[in-house]
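<given_protein>
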Amino acid sequence: MTNISAPKIPDGEKVDFDDIHRKRQEKDLSELQSLIEAHFIQRKKEEEELIALVNRIEKRRAERAEQQRVRTEREKERQARLAEEKERKELEEQRKKFDDDAKKKKALSNMTQQYSAGQKSESRKGGKKQTEREKKKKILADRRKALNIDHLNEEKLKEKASELWQWLMGLEAEKFDLSEKLKRQKYDINQLLARVQDHQSAKGRGKGKMAGRLR
C-alpha cells in the first residue's frame, strides 16, 4: 500500500477532516478491489490450468483404454485363429487316421481273402494228391535213363560216369532251389498270418485264432 503523507494545510484555510477521511477510505477501497480482482484473475487462471490438466489426464486415460481394447481384440482374434488352426489340424489328423485305418482294413481283407483262397486251393489239391504222385512218378520214370553200358569199353564207361555225375548234380541243384523257394513261401505265409492275428488282437475283434502256421 502506498504511504500516505499528511496533507499540507494552507495557512489561514479551514481543514475539512471529513473529506480527508472519505478520500482515504475511497483509496483503500479501490486498492482492496484491485487486490480482489487480481486474486480472482489468478484463481481463474489456475482453475483453467487445472481443467486443462484434468482434460489431458482424461484424454490420456481414454487413449490407454482404447489401446487396451485394441490389444484385447487382437489377442482374441489371435486366440481364435490358433483355436481354428488347432481344430483344422485335429480334423486333418483324424481324416488321415481314418484313411490309414481304411487302407489297413482293406489290405488285411485282401490278405485274408488271399489266405482263404490259398486254403481252398490246398484243400482242392488234397483231393488230387494221388494224381500229383502219379505225375511225379511219370516224370521220374521219364528222367530215369537206361544205362546200356554192356557194350562200352573202359574209356566210354568213364565218359558215361562223368555224364551221369553232371546230371545228378543238376538234379541236386534243382532240388535245392525248389526247397529254398518252398521255405521262403512258408515264411511269407507265416509272417502274413502273424500280422493278421496281431491286428485282430489289437482291435479286440478276434473271433478265434486262424489256422496254425504252416509246418
User: Anything to note?
Assistant: The chain has a mean pLDDT of 78. Helices lie at 17-126, 129-143, 154-203.
